[in-house]
Amino acid sequence: MGVTQELDVWGKQSARRDAADAAMRQSSLGGEAQRLQTRAEVRLGLMTASSLTEAMQSNAGTLAHLRRIRGASAGFVDPRMGYYANTVFNSDLAGIESDLRDLKEARDKALLQLHRLIGIKEEIKPPAPEEIPLPPAPALTELLNRAHEKNPERLAANLALARAESNERLAMLGDRPNPSLFLGAGQNTIGTSNLGLKGPGPENERERTFRFGAKIPIPISKYNDGALEAARQEKRKAAMDLERIETQLDFSVKQTAERYTAYREAICEIGPVGDSGSNLAAIDQAFLAGRISYFDFMGEYERTAKVLKRRADSYIGAAASLGALELLTGQTLDKEQE
Q1: Which positions ≥6 away from 96 have C-beta within 8 Å?
Q2: Can you give the residue range of the structural domain that contains 283?
Q3: Along the chain (338 residues), what's the average pLDDT of each consecutive run of 10 residues?
Q4: N-to-C CA span, the chain
Q5: What is the pTM of this model?
Q6: What CATH number has the domain bearing residue 268?
């Protein structure tokens, strides 16, 4: 029996370990990036379904209200359009009905995607848009520091470069064998039992033996030129990928943070859904009394519809921007508000 210990004099074993460690850490980073991505998609799905549900309810209420106005204004003669205003009114009502169907289709699509992401069959009832956390973005300096420290893409590119460097070292070493030390112990049986003549002493004697030494193989070749060139190309590509990511990272973080902040400010500026109700009531009275034309009347409803659409778009855009910012910085940001 014996033991043999290979000596890593060329560094081949350490290069293999380094390459394997970099590959394992890359795989772990991929899992963390996927977790952030899934979390961001769930938040965006909830916000989309919530905002579209709110828009549907608003459109449905507007449609029912305008139908009542249409019935009350059956004999109305528009000062500019005459009786043709009634035809335009009917056409606009049909347009609102079509918009309502489109909103429902988009909402249902968002809910279906949520079911696929979460993996449940139960009905999903999204909270109101304002109940989904959209915290203020940290200072830009802090975001940039986080991105340079934890951005998954940058960390993965760093590990890809480290793995490429280890593979280059292995390619340069080629098939150079390492020397090894060996230690062995055993026993030999000696005696005359197998001979015709028998001498004095025990019939068989056992002799213990120990062996210790070194094996030093002689390398035949240094390395494979093709393998070395391939390893160097891999290293050059990894270095270029890392440089590209680092060049774009600061700009991406700054742009995404500004976009997220702009969406949050738009949400605050627009305010709650019901704020325009009193204005529309005054417009209704003026229209039914014949003080304003149909275009002025419907124009106010269209303006209100645009504001509500901007509100929904701002909530959805803010959720998407927050998810992108979390992916860039490599960590969740809404935990700070939980």
Answers
A1: 59, 62, 63, 66
A2: 2-185+210-337
A3: 60 71 74 88 95 93 90 74 82 94 95 90 90 94 94 88 82 66 64 50 60 62 71 90 92 97 95 67 85 88 90 96 95 68
A4: 64
A5: 0.75
A6: 1.20.1600.10
